[in-house]
Design goal:
The protein is an alpha/beta fold. The chain has 35 helices and 23 strands. Helix 3 packs across helix 4 and helix 23 runs antiparallel to helix 26. The longest helix has 29 residues.
Length: 826
């Protein structure tokens, strides 16, 4: 069949009008679901509609792929261990430009688009900000026409489903694939073999050169599963390719016939474990080894897939960096560097210098942490066991690199130790961030502050050696999902006032500034915000039985539970309000609900105890009639993208209170500001840039900055000294200690108190307490002035244009990747 003939077939895959959608829905009920469309329900309608939309996506995806090949486009290979996609139904309808037609089609079956999407489950492919950022970036790549692919793992169970029992987190399997995934294509014809374990051996090649090979390996298979990502109303569709682990031998008939039924399936079970769960617990050595296997598994499959595409165009390998750029989203995929070296040297017989020049021009690396202890390291013994050939390559990379360091800084032995990829000691480790820096042409931070901090602290030595290698690109969020989709009333009001161009050019939101003091516009803005709050009220009541008055201030902190995020600081403020109300019911003027959500890592004891603290304090406050007319606490279990789509538009006050110098960027802070929430925050991560964009007077900044934190630590911070001078803080801490919030058990929250005192209050929660409480008191006075609060809310949205992922991706494309937007071929 000719390309012209196949184009006709693609065009016949379905129209975009409501009648064509109805026909497709009926057809998929019959052909894919084996059901009578006259007896459809919400779930069958969701599935049939998803297949119908996928039909319309795949034609454009094929045309997009053709354009890459026809124009010899340089493509981005974006490697991320997480993609926090959320639900796809509404997002895909919006990006296809047929949300109205979709609503009309579903109306024929008596349901709404919201009804149908309620039957979809969030894709279990990520955990937090790292994965959500990656998903926003793919949306922007598709919308901007940037040639590229996202690569990760198709986790069968995601991370975990969080339940709250007796106030404590309980982890349950997130069986998100139990009913299948209608959005995906399983590509059984593109399976790659992945080696593990085995040994390295030397041999003499036919040309007389000494070569290495990796032998006696265990074999697993990587099968690609594609999910399509459409650009916004541009006909451009890219794909996220996720790898599923499959056994090289699925079933041992000899063992089965001998009666050993369990062992007959052993290979299959072990192999499939690789893509079962995101972040298996690393408390045991087996869990740590599985994490390493996971990372290599998806990296090896991705590099093989990239080279498969490259070899189609029959160019010399020296041209690879002109055709592909591999972006490492954090250190998790850093093993890609020695993997590409292995393939080029061992399989394609390039010499070391040729292969290293190619690698150094192919990889770019984004760092997402400012804390040295969070940088990934792997035990050298474990790496030798799992990836013996790669360890040899890493040692050679390190040997040559340290020779360069010696030449640049002769006689500086301490620098050699600091910069070595291999961290020596009783238990030597491989520093994966060091490997990523040495093997990449660019290293970027994710906010202005973060970019400066990693140069000043973590990578100081490398900056001196490679001053031009380090840069920063502030994170961004897609306005399609995080305003247009999740906050329809507000997005429609904005469109009415400034036109629809903001959806793909978020900088146009600045036009709202002239309306910030317009009384009629303020009233309509308030009505939109109230609708969002009522929608959250209905959701929380239906899903969790929680009552949250819609006219109260919604004070929200939703993010991963971690000491540095300082949820404890927020709880201490709640206890302070509780104490004030107990003494004088009129002492707190503004009624507020403190809303929390977020997961704690299963092995992170203190984070799980913080969840218990939030729920225990909430149980006391919510049941006390002396205070619950002004203060309530709500913890919403199992935080995920679809839940965030309810919470974020309804938020009045966004809590971004990490210790200055610990948060790389954040993207939740951007989503809240975009939807008109006011931020209370430290000068940390992207909070600084939000402040610069919306104006210092429109954000509530408190506490120490990063330099002041370092100075105070250097001077010898003693948390106990803070408490003696603050009676409210002392009172709140005493209530934690005396069993008021733990049914009389004085020891229950001792681990949290120990972290604040005996262990030195690492994240200086107590040091920032008074500044935080004072800021909360000040913002209450502004809340009472409705016009002023609404003006500030409007200006926060108006100032959010800089935080579009479209802007971020264009910065990556032009300043890092060297990739240009393409228009889809007709």
């Amino acid at each position: 069949m000719s390309t012209k003939d196949s184009d006709v077939v693609l065009e016949e895959m379905g129209g975009l009008d409501s009648e064509s959608l109805v026909e497709s829905i009926c057809q998929h009920h019959l052909s894919n679901l084996g059901r009578d469309y006259g007896r459809s329900d919400k779930f069958s309608l969701y599935q049939a509609l998803a297949y119908s939309l996928r039909d319309r996506l795949v034609g454009n995806w094929i045309k997009t792929q053709r354009s890459y090949y026809n124009r010899s486009a340089k493509s981005v290979y974006y490697l991320s261990l997480e993609f926090l996609v959320g639900k796809s139904l509404t997002s895909n309808a919006i990006n296809l430009g047929i949300e109205k037609e979709t609503e009309e089609a579903l109306g024929k079956f008596g349901v709404t688009l919201e009804d149908a999407e309620s039957a979809e489950v969030d894709a279990g492919l990520g955990n937090g900000g790292l994965g959500r950022l990656a998903s926003c970036f793919l949306d922007s790549m598709a919308t901007l026409g940037i040639p590229g692919y996202g690569y990760g793992i198709r986790y069968e169970y995601g991370i975990f489903k969080q339940a709250i029992e007796n106030g404590e987190q309980v982890e349950l399997p997130d069986d998100w694939l139990h009913s299948g995934n209608p959005w995906e294509f399983r590509r059984r014809g593109f399976v790659f073999t992945i080696g593990l374990y085995g040994r390295e051996e030397k041999y003499t090649h036919d040309d007389g050169s000494l070569r290495h090979r990796w032998t006696d390996t265990a074999k697993v298979m990587a099968m690609p599963v594609d999910m399509l990502i459409p650009g916004y109303k541009n006909g451009n569709v890219i794909n996220m390719r996720l790898w599923e682990a499959q056994p090289a031998r699925r079933f041992n008939l000899d063992l089965f016939n001998s009666g050993d039924y369990i062992r007959s399936m052993e290979d299959a079970v072990k192999t499939e474990t690789i893509s079962k769960v995101l972040y298996p617990s690393d408390k045991l050595s087996e869990g740590r080894e599985l994490r390493l296997v996971q990372q290599y598994f998806f990296v090896s499959a991705t590099i093989q897939d990239m080279l498969r595409r490259f070899e189609k165009i029959k160019l010399d390998f020296s041209e690879l960096p002109n055709r592909a750029v591999v972006h490492l989203n954090e250190t998790h995929p850093a093993i890609a560097i020695p993997e590409l070296m292995r393939i080029l040297i061992d399989e394609h017989m390039l010499n070391w210098d040729q292969a290293w020049r190619i690698c150094r021009r192919t990889f770019a690396y984004t760092n997402h942490t400012v804390m040295p202890e969070a940088l990934e390291k792997w035990s050298l013994d474990m790496m030798r066991k799992v990836l013996p050939r790669h360890v040899s390559i890493i040692f050679e990379i390190n040997r040559r690199f340290l020779e360069d360091v010696k030449n640049c800084f002769p006689g500086d032995e301490e620098r050699l130790s600091r910069m070595s990829i291999i961290e020596e000691g009783e238990y030597p480790q491989v520093r994966m961030a060091w490997l990523a820096v040495v093997g990449s042409f660019t290293v970027n931070g994710v906010s202005t502050l973060h970019g400066e901090l990693i140069k000043k602290n973590i990578f100081y030595d490398f900056v001196e050696m490679f001053p031009g290698r380090f840069t920063s690109v502030t994170n961004g969020i897609t306005p399609r999902r995080w305003l247009k989709q999740c906050n329809i009333p507000l997005s429609e009001l904005i469109t009415e006032k400034i036109g629809k161009g903001w959806v793909t050019d978020l900088s146009r939101l600045h036009q709202l500034e002239s309306l910030a003091e317009d009384e009629e516009f303020q009233n309509r803005w308030y009505d939109c915000r109230l609708k969002a709050k009522k929608k959250l009220v209905e959701y929380a009541q239906k899903e969790y039985g929680l009552y949250m008055p819609a006219d109260w201030m919604y004070d929200v902190q939703v993010k991963r539970i971690h000491e540095y995020k300082r949820q404890v600081l927020n709880v201490l403020h709640a206890i302070t309000l509780y104490c004030r109300l107990k003494k004088d019911p009129s002492s707190v003027a503004v009624p507020r609900v403190k809303i929390f959500a977020g997961k704690a890592a299963p092995g992170y004891f203190l984070a799980k105890r913080i969840i218990r603290l939030i729920n225990s304090v909430g149980a006391v406050i919510n049941s006390d009639s002396a205070v619950n007319h002004k203060l309530r606490i709500a913890f919403l279990p199992n935080y995920r993208v679809s839940q965030a789509e309810y919470i974020i538009p309804a938020t009045d006050l966004s809590e971004q209170i990490s210790l200055a110098g610990t948060e790389a960027s954040g993207t939740g802070n951007m989503k809240f500001a975009l939807n008109g929430a006011l931020t209370i925050g430290t000068l940390d991560g992207a909070n600084i840039e939000i402040m610069e964009e919306v104006g210092r007077e429109n954000i509530f900044i408190f506490g120490m900055n990063a330099d002041e934190v370092e100075k105070r630590k250097h001077e010898g911070y003693v948390s106990g000294d803070v408490v003696g001078g603050d009676s409210e803080l002392a009172e709140a801490l005493n209530l934690l200690a005396d069993g008021t919030f733990s049914e009389g058990d004085r020891d229950f929250f001792a681990p949290i108190l120990d972290s604040l005192f005996a262990e030195g209050d690492q994240y200086m929660t107590l040091a920032d307490y008074r500044a935080y409480v004072d800021a909360q008191d000040a913002l209450e006075q502004i809340w009472l002035d409705r016009k002023k609060w609404l003006k500030m809310s409007i200006l926060n949205t108006a100032g959010s244009g800089h935080f579009s992922s479209d802007r971020a991706i264009m910065e990556y494309a032009t300043s890092i990747w060297g990739v240009h937007p393409m228009e889809k071929e007709s």
